Amino acid sequence: MNQGSFLGLVGLVAFFPQMNVMGSPLKVYVLAGQSNMQGSAHKKTFAAIGDDPKTAPLLKEVLGASGEPIEADNGWVAYRTNRGGEQATLLGKVKVGYGFDDKRIGPEYGFGLFMDRSTEEPVLLIKTAWGGKSLAVDFRPPSSGVYQPSEREKKTGRVFLKEETGHYYREMVAFVKEILRDEASIQKVVPGYDEETGYELSGFVWFQGWNDMCNRHHIAQYTENMINFIADVRREFDSPTLPFIVGVLGVYGADPDSRRFDKGLPVSTFRKTQFEAVKQYDSKVDSALRGNVIAVDSGPFYELGLSDIYWKRRMTGEWKRRLKKGEMTRETYQKECARYGFGNGEITAEEQATWDRCSSNAEYHYLGSGKTFIRFGKALAEAMLEIEKS
């Protein structure tokens, strides 16, 4: 299936009233990745969804009558991550709080709310996400074999130990199996779960990439590693046709090369490796494992205008520091401001208000924008539902 066809579905499928049914098999979706699967969007940024006429209707679907974010009626989350330097496990209804902290979200919020309202069956999301992790090393799938360090890594002595390679792949698999072990373990998350009704593993969503993108040695092997990852996950859970979505890195938008900032990062090159993994998957794996793998691009949901403010704040702040220390002349400062369209270099009242209202984190974390994370989570759910229909 072509991932592009699913992007056009965003916003077209309405939220339907949830039928609170436990007589149907529990639908289980696994969500995995690194910091952007964890999620940085603070709930204070949700209100900005209503500022854009194109997205304003969505705000009514995530805020209740009190103005606070809603929780799902029949959707639950089991979440394994790191918080405060220690491993944490969180269980409960789909709501705000399964992100970096108890006031933040990742893609699971939009995904879970939309699934909850679009299916008759109860829904369980099993989410495993740890920040700063690579597919080449941390989530390395068994089929990729032993990690071969680059020449630079050999010279610096940064050779990963055997137990480090694939550690978070194993952690992910172990947590999913722990939650699904038996009726009692599932009931810790979904109180009304009945073993006779059972569950079905319905899909897998992968959203990761920054750490591999920052390492050209990792980029060179990403497509192969991603293909192996998908095949190994399907074998691990004895689900050869498990619907699988690769969430494509979208920091800097869908056309990173058109951006004026941070030109040194090979974002476009890396994005191609993710699309290529989906494109090549069926031709690289056993026939029993083919099909039902798509890519969904997070780039169209990236807030480019907010990014412009981020870079203006960051770059002019550094120039002002250099100006003060005598490392930059006033003339050079003015030329740089003109070069990037920053005016006199001062953040306007309107820009500051937009920044305070819409952002809650750094650029590589999608600026902590609720508008981004909720829309992308919904797009992932829409794509998953389309796979299930096919």
What does the secondary structure layout of this molecule look like, with pairings?
Elements: H1 4-7, E1 26-33, H2 35-38, E2 41-42, H3 56-62, E3 75-83, E4 86-93, E5 104-105, H4 107-118, E6 123-129, H5 151-156, H6 167-179, H7 183-187, E7 199-207, H8 210-213, H9 216-236, E8 244-248, H10 267-284, E9 293-297, H11 304-324, H12 330-339, H13 349-358, H14 370-389
Parallel strand pairs: 1-6, 1-7, 3-6, 7-8, 8-9
Antiparallel strand pairs: 2-5, 3-4
Helix pairs in contact: 4-14, 9-10
Question: What's the CATH first level of the largest domain?
Answer: Alpha Beta
State the order of secondary-structure elements, H for helix, E for strand: HEHEHEEEHEHHHEHHEHEHHHH
Radius of gyration based on Cα positions: 22 Å
CATH topology of the largest domain: Rossmann fold
CATH homologous group name of the largest domain: SGNH hydrolase
Low-confidence stretches: 1-21
Distance between the termini: 10 Å
Query: What share of residues is helical?
Result: 25-40%
CATH architecture of the largest domain: 3-Layer(aba) Sandwich
Estimated structural class: alpha/beta
Number of strands: 9
How do the strands line up in the largest sheet?
4-3-6-1-7-8-9
Which sheet architecture does the biggest sheet show? 7 strands, mixed
Mean pLDDT across residues: 93
Q: Shape from CA axes?
A: globular
Count of discrete domains: 2
- Taken as a percent bin, the fraction of beta residues is 5-15%
The total count of helices amounts to 14
